[in-house]
Please model this.
Amino acid sequence: MERLTNQSIEEEMQRSYIDYAMSVIAGRALPDVRDGLKPVHRRILYAMHDMGLHYNRAHKKCARVVGDVLGKYHPHGDQAAYSTLVRMAQDFSMRYMLVDGQGNFGSIDGDSPAAMRYTECRLSRISSELLMDIDKDTVPFVDNFDGSMKEPSVLPSRFPNLLVNGSSGIAVGMATNIPPHNLSEVVDALVLMLEDPQAELADLMEHIRGPDFPTGGTIYGVNGIKSAYLTGRGKVKVRANTHLEAMDNGRQRIIISEIPYTVNKSSLVEKIADLVKSKRIEGISDLRDESDRNGMRIVVELSRDAMDEVVLNQLFKHTPMESTFGIINLALVDNKPVLMDLKTMLQHYLDHRRVVITRRTEYDLAQARKRHHILEGLMRALDNLDDTIETIRESSNPEAARGALMGLLGLSEEQAKAILDLRLHKLTGMEMESLRDEYRTVTATILDLEDILAHEDRVRVIIRDELLEMKDGYGDMRRTQINYQDIDVEAEDLIPREDLAIIITQDNYIKSMPLDTYRAQGRGGRGLTGMGTKEEDQTVDMFTCSTHDYVLFLTSTGRLHWLKGYNLPSGGRHARGKPIVNMLSDLEPGEKVVNTIPVDAFPEDRYLVFSTRNGVVKKTGLDAFKNVRVRGIKAIRMDEGDELVATRLTDGGQQLLLATRLGQAVRFNEAEVRATGRDTRGVKGISLRQDDAVVSMAVVGDDDDLLSITENGYGKISSVADYRHTHRGGKGVITIKLSDRNGPVVAVRRVDKQEDLMVMNNEGKVIRLNLGEIRSSGRNTMGVRIMRLAPGERVVAVVPVPPAPPEEEPEE
Model:
């Protein structure tokens, strides 16, 4: 009779989806906490065991294994089963391989394995430990998919495979991602728990230091490890292992010898090449993969002026050389998904081994008792040998003989049958003694097995001894290092802070050098070569900053870019540097960097004041420039034919002094310039005569000194108080008397007489002297010689710097 049940669609969908979800969770995606295997892994290993593909036997085609697995236990796609088998044979996927493969099983470069008809496999030696004693009723067996065969629901697992090899999988509404660990460390932690069940997480972590990936690498920080071991969830940051090698030409190269777990080596090399091509990473001159059967070796050759720390940190930041492994310790406990801490996972494994050893002992005891029963009958027959033989001879057939023996000696049917099956050579003196020895041995074995079942301590000792055997047989050294320094800081914090001298040429070449490269000289010296310039190139700017400062680049079109000081190319005094166009993105044709300024932050109460060649000034809050796009941002709008000549950092209430090429200067309050947005024009700062132009802008106070330098190497220091205070837009006063001897004004700077002065000419020569050597004089004077110039040379850049520290006297 047909039965109909009314059911709402919502309830039916909910019930069906829950059934589907639980089927995926328990039947496919999540490992069992006891043996660390998903059903497909377990079925493959058991099928290979059933086929006799043990580690000491010959390899067989993988296609035979896959066929057996699909036909007997796992009715799903052959590629899914083969992919699982392949992964268990890859040394870069499994910390301890469970399958011994022969043939092409893929590579860390992402190469696909050969088809299953070409590859061969067998169980690895350690897999035999997972399956050991499976024939002794140690684990429950269940029906296969069609009920025609039995398969194990879990493996005996003599080692904690879940932690040792890890597992990953995505179920419905949940996922697991358990990292692999070192076998020796996990065994030590288990032994500790056996000896001290009250051991805390800190005690366990003295043995289990953290994940141990098959591909090595270095884990930075332990906070993520502690979180995962305490709560079941955590994140660990894994970096590639690298070292530096010196090259014959004086340059260096970075050697990548290990990469993070699951990272594709070929994709990593392609990613680095793409970043170099797009100029996201600077300082790499060559890249190649020299890996072979002896190990991984990715070579990254550096340019001569590259800083290895900077390049390395850029590689970590922009490539999978640094990756995050999210730990989720989720596994099946009694067929239910449970998120576990480290101690709980270890405890579940120990509980499983107790069950396995108890069931194995019970099985061995049953077999020993069965044998003991047979031996008892044989002993009775041997003790009454003549009567036994006579009884058998007088019997008409085996059935009659069996019945007669049972009546004569008081035997069971099995004992009588064993006597009848006894061969005559067993009646020799030696064989009879051997039977008696076996009887005594089996008797002792039964007593020992009964004692094991009666005392929990005996079971605990057996578990410990077997674990230590696993450690002795398969334990090895860690592959993944752990750096206990937490790097929750920016990678740039690993770069040392030091002062740099930055030099820029007219053709937009730039380089940085340690500031102590230049030693102080006397006034009138010839100078040291500061930069090797190409023909017709001229040095136009020079400044100092820290490796961690932001260097703002303002271009001739009024756009602003910034880079960190450590990203600027470094080089010696004779190095030319690197084109800024390679450092900044998308400079327009003809666009040049005309001004730079270092800052360490972008506060709201600081301002950038701009001055153009035509005498226009503009003020904008510094915080407007903290978010710079790839193409830069518009900093100032200028009239056609005008260009930027100076940018200064102010607090909004200072005095500004504009100086011109023909020796005029105007001094006014910054408050007369109203702060405006980025893309604005500004207001008039000074009225210029014909053929005159602004060359400098200085931020000054009444008590400051002002340094004026001319093209022909002359200069003087005057007091700012000599410049009368006016309003913006005025014509100004004379700042230095000009003649053919000293030439036009190059720069006017506010200085401190305790500072040193660095002056550079158009040939790249630099002189450094103490400002105290330059005498003060009035505004309307020509100054003294600062730098001796050869014919055709002229001063192009001036910058005050902190005085060089005195040299220490050598110890005697």
In short: The CA atoms of residues 85 and 138 lie 25 Å apart. The chain is about 30% helix and 25% strand. The chain has a mean pLDDT of 85.
